[in-house]
Amino acid sequence: MVTPSRITLARKRRGLTLAELSQHAGVSLQSLSNYETGRTSPRPPTVRKIAAALDFPEAFFSGAEVNELPSDGISWRARTKTPPRVLDSARAAGTLAAQLYDWIAERFLLPEPDLPSLGKPDPETAAGMVRTRWDLGQAPAPNMVHLLEAHGVRVFSLPPDSLEVDAFAVWRSGVPFVFLNTLKTVERSRFDAAHELGHLVMHASGERPCIGPEAERQANDFASAFLMPAASVLGHMPAGARVDQILSGKRIWKVSAMALTYRMHDLNLLTNWQYRSTCAELSARGYRTDEPQGLRKREASQILTKAFQGLRTKDIRPHNVADQLGITPGELKNMLFGLTMTSIDGGREHSRSHRIDGVLSLVRG
C-alpha cells in the first residue's frame, strides 16, 4: 500500500512539480494528484515508474506516514530570492534526515536538548546567557558542530543540490535540528551554525517573529557575539587594527576576516571610515566570497560518526540503514555531515572521518 505523503515528499525532494513528475514518469497529472491526495493508490507498475523518475527505492513509498518538518518555524535567509522548489527540496532533505535521527534515537542514547528559550533579551545578552549556561566563559568557541550536538542539537548536512540554502534550523517535537551547507568555507560554516543556534534560542517562543530581515539581523548579531565575545575581542584586538592584524586575529576565534571586521566595528574598535576601507581591501584580496589561507579541516558530526561506528560493530552498514529507511545510499550519504564511507577490502566499509569522544551510548536490548 502506497503512503500518499511519501510521494509528495519524494517529489519535493527532487524539486519537481506535479506536471514535471507526470512528464518524467509517464503518468497522467490527474492520476498523480489522486495518488498524493490518497483518492486512489497506484498499482505496482506505476509505483515503479514513479520511483524511477524520483530516484527513490520502491520500498520508500510503502513506509509509514511522514510528517514534514514544520515550515512555520524555519527562517530562510533569502526566502524571497530563493525559488520555492529549492526551499521545498531542502526541507524535504531535512525531513529525511529527521527520519534518520528517529532511527538512530531508537538504538542510541543521545544527549538531551539543553537550549534556553530567550525570546526577550537582545542578541548580545542572549549569546552571553547561552555561553554562561554552557560554561564557555570568554574562551573561543570550540568545534561548533560538536558543541551543538553535546547540547542536544541534531546536526545534519544539506545535500549539494541545496547550495542556494545557506543553512536552516527548526524545532521538531521538542528536538532542535540544524542543517548546514558543507560547501561553504569552514569559517562561514561555523558562523552559520552559531546563526542557527541564535534562531533556536531567540525565535522559538513566539515572543518575536522568526522570519524577516529583523530576525536575520538578530541571528547574525547573536552569532557574532557568541563566536567573538566582546571582552575577548577587546582584549586581543587593537583599536584601528590593520588588515594584517585582522587576518592574524581571526584565527583566534576561527571566524572569517569579514566577520571579525564587522564585530570590531560593532565594538567601536574601527571607525566608519576604517571599517569601509578595511572591507574594501579584504574584498580586493578575495575575502568577500572566500577565505584565502583559511581553515581546511571541516567541522563535522561526532554523533553520526560514533553512531555508524557503533552500528558497524553489529555488522550494520550504511547501505543497511539506507535500506531500512527506504532511501538510496547516496541520499543517506548526503546527510552524513563530513562522514565518508568507502568500500574497500572486499566491500568492508571504513570511516575516514574524525576523532570521536564519548557522548552517546548504545541502547541495551
UniProtKB/TrEMBL annotation:
InterPro entries: Cro/C1-type_HTH, IrrE_HExxH, Lambda_DNA-bd_dom_sf, Rad_response_metalloprotease. Residues 7-61 form the HTH cro/C1-type domain. Pfam families: HTH_3, Peptidase_M78. Signal peptide: none annotated. CDD domains: HTH_XRE (cd00093). Belongs to the short-chain fatty acyl-CoA assimilation regulator (ScfR) family. This is XRE family transcriptional regulator. It comes from Streptomyces ortus.
